[in-house]
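Notebook entry, structure prediction.
Reason for the run: the old model in the group folder had no record of what sequence produced it. Starting over properly, with the input documented here first.
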Amino acid sequence: MATKKPVISVILDDDVLKEVEDYQYGKRIPSRSKALNEIIKLGIEQLKKEEKNGEGE
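New structure, fully documented this time:
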């Protein structure tokens, strides 16, 4: 079944890709896409916390 979610392409440096894959395998996430989605959500959550605490400047 086709997804209606947006699809984007991202170019990563080798070291960043290794970090993503390490996270993926460590958390037993079945795909890079899901791992990246989780990492991005965690990053956004962290940014919001920093903005709330006045650290984002």
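Summary: Residues 24 and 34 are 8 Å apart (CA to CA).
The old model has been moved to the deprecated folder.
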